[in-house]
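mind reviewing both lines:
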Amino acid sequence: QLQLVESGGGLVHPGGSLSLACAASGFTSDYYAIGWFRQVPGKEREGISCVNFRSASTNYADSVKGRATISRDNAKNTIYLQMNSLKPEDTGVYYCAAAPVSVLFRLCVLNLGPYNTWGQGTQVTVSS
C-alpha cells in the first residue's frame, strides 16, 4: 500500500536552510498530489506547499512564499521541500501527505481534507 517517509529534519539556526525529503512507495497511478504540512505548537496544522505529480503544478502558503521551494524526482518517487531563511516560528513537526486527484484536476490544494495518506512526520527546530 501507499507509504510516505519523511527525512531531513533537525536543528537549524535562524536564517539557515534545510531540505526535507518525502519518499513515496506503493503508488498505483500518477493521479495524485503531494503536500507538505506542519504542526506548530499552538496552531492548527497548516498546509505549506504541494505539487501535482502529473502536471507539476505547485502551490505555496503565504507564510512560506519566497522562502520555500517544492520539487519532485519522478524516477525516485521523492518530493523535496527546500526551506530558506528559517525563523523560530517555523519550528514544528513537518509531514508529507498524498491526495488522490481527478484526471481532470491539474492543480493541488493546501487544505487537509483531500489528503488521506500521511507520513510519520519529522521534527524541525529553528533555534539559536
Summary: The longest strand covers residues 92-100.
